[in-house]
Structures are given as C-alpha cells and as structure tokens.
Amino acid sequence: MTKPILEASGFAASILDALSSHICVIDNDGVIVAVNRAWQDFTEENPPVSTHAGVGAQYLDVCRSASGPDSEDAAKFALGVQSVLQGKAASFEMEYSCHSPTQNRWFSGDVTPLENERGGAVISHTTITDRKLLELELARLAEMDSLTGLPNRRYFLETASMEVERVRRFGTAASLVMIDLDHFKAVNDTYGHPVGDEALRCLTQVCEKLLRQIDVIARIGGEEFAVMLPGTDEAGAVSVAEKLRHAVCETPVKSGQNQFNITASFGAAEVRASDTGIDECLARADSALYAAKHAGRNRVMSFAAATSFSEAQLALPG
Predict the structure, then answer these.
(1) What does pTM read for this prediction?
(2) Known active-site residue 223
(3) Which of 22, 131, 280, 298 could form an S-S bond across to 39 if both were Cys, CB 3.0 to 4.6 Å?
C-alpha cells in the first residue's frame, strides 16, 4: 500500500488528506511522487486503476493507456498536463466522464504548476457527478412534455431534422405522421380540462404500445402529436397510422365516473431527398391531416391521397 503524501510535511499531508478531491503531485517528467488519502482510496476501490496509478507511476502513461469509452478524454487530459509541465500553459482544467460498471461519474480535473526549481504540478480530480446529473435532468425536462411524458416540439424537430439529413445523405426511407385529436374542445367543454388531459394521456399510451423503439412520438401542440417513422415509406406510414387510429377509437378514456371514446385524424407524408429541412415534410403531413379532418375526421390521409382529394373537391360544381 502506498504512503500518502510521501514528500510533503506532516502538516501539509494532514491538510491534503482532509480534502475530498483526489490529489496527486507529479514531478516535471510526469512521475507521481505523492498522493492524498482520497486518491489512494479511489485507486483501491477501482482495481484496474490501483495497479498503475500509485506513487512512482508515470501519470501521463496512465492517461494515454486508458481504454474504453472515456479514453479520448484521458488522452486530452494528458495533453493538458503536458502543456503545464512544459510551461506552455499557466494551468489546465477539464471536465470529463469516468463511468464505472455500476454508476455514471463525472469529474473536474485541475492541473496547477509547482513553483519550485524542480518543476512539476499538482493534479486535483473533484467529483461533479451531482451537478452533471442535475444538468442532464434539467435538459431532459426542457425537452419533455410534462403532461404526457412525451418529447416536446423542440426535441422532435431536432430529431426529425437528423432523420431528414439521413434520407438526404443515404437515400433511406422515412415518413412523418401528424395526429390530431378530434373534437378536443368539446371534450374539455363537456367533461372539463382534467378529463381532457386524461384523453391526451390515453392517446399517448395507445400509440406508445404500438410504435417501435426507433420511432419517435412527440406532443407538438395542444392536442396535436407527431410521429417520425425511420425506414418507412408513405404507404407504410399509412398502414402504421391506420393501426393507431383503430386502437385509439377502440380504447375508452376512463377518468373517475367518466368513460367515453375518442377519435383522431392522421396525416402521413414521406420525407423526400429534396427536402432541405423538416419543415417541408411537416407541411405535407399537415396538409394531409387537414384533408383527413375535412373528409370527416377519424381517418388516415396520405399526402398523395390528400392532393387527389383536394383536386376532386375543387372539381365539384360550386
């Protein structure tokens, strides 16, 4: 077992051992010459690290030999340490992930040069896991609809835009389905807004059960939802939408003493390689949805069928 702070005075060693940050001292060649108690405890709790991160080890080699998903960060940190040792940087700081098999962990690494003739540096690794987890949760909440638990419009547009780019680059298929709950205002007026909220949650649960993991469904407006279907052409999207439509109208909404059935209208459109963004496909799917509403609601309309429907409507005598 290595001795903490081998080259520090007893007073300094006591101070460093009291700190929760993992601290080591390296000489100008990058060799570890001292560690504090937190550093020693961490290496002992992580066996792969303990064999080569103690006093006498070459710290830069430890970083460069790292493998796995965090290895890129370790290599970057080694470059930062080297820049401080060579006098090219006054200090270095970097946040990085260091996940274990049982938990996700993040640290902030700080490198400060030693002000003495022999050079060297003090390296401190401080856990920032709680802050990172909070940041991730806040980011998740910012992209989530609190009522249904689905992604919100912002998240959907970002994800759908990436799918459009995939279609443009690789010629794959993808389609978009717009969903709008029929007569939603009447539901709210008849039963109240809490029951209307339950109707939205009911539709959400029905759709989530039938969609694939790779499909993305989001609530993008009041009673309006959107579904991105990767690897699906327009005909396939119509088939999926028809299954959803049937399941929605066959599933009663239950809220206290209230029980009633709802219906929804669907508009489907395929992403085109000529699309420069998601807005164009959204417009086509929205046009198909409008046609489904105009044709009587509780039905599925593809963009191609909606175009024919509109032309037929225009051809009717006034």
Answers:
(1) 0.66
(2) yes
(3) 22
Query: Are 77 and 94 spatial neighbours (Cβ–Cβ below 8 Å)?
Result: yes
**Digit-coded pLDDT (tens) for 289-305:** 999 999 999 999 999 99
E strand map for 191-252: 216-219, 224-230
CB atoms < 10 A from the CB of 43, how many? 21
Stretch 132-156: mean pLDDT: 92
Catalytic residue among 223, 224, 234, 311: 223
Query: Which tens digit of pLDDT belongs to each residue from 189-235?
Result: 999 999 999 999 999 999 999 999 999 999 999 999 999 999 999 99
Contact between residue 267 and residue 282 where contact means Cβ atoms under 8 Å apart: no
Strand partners, 92: 111
Task: Identify the structural domains of the chain with CATH numbers, from first to last.
Answer: 10-133 (3.30.450.20), 143-315 (3.30.70.270)
Q: Are 27 and 121 in contact (CB under 8 A)?
A: no
Measured CA to CA, the distance from residue 154 to residue 142 in angstroms comes to 9
- Residue 261's closest CA among 194, 211, 186? 186
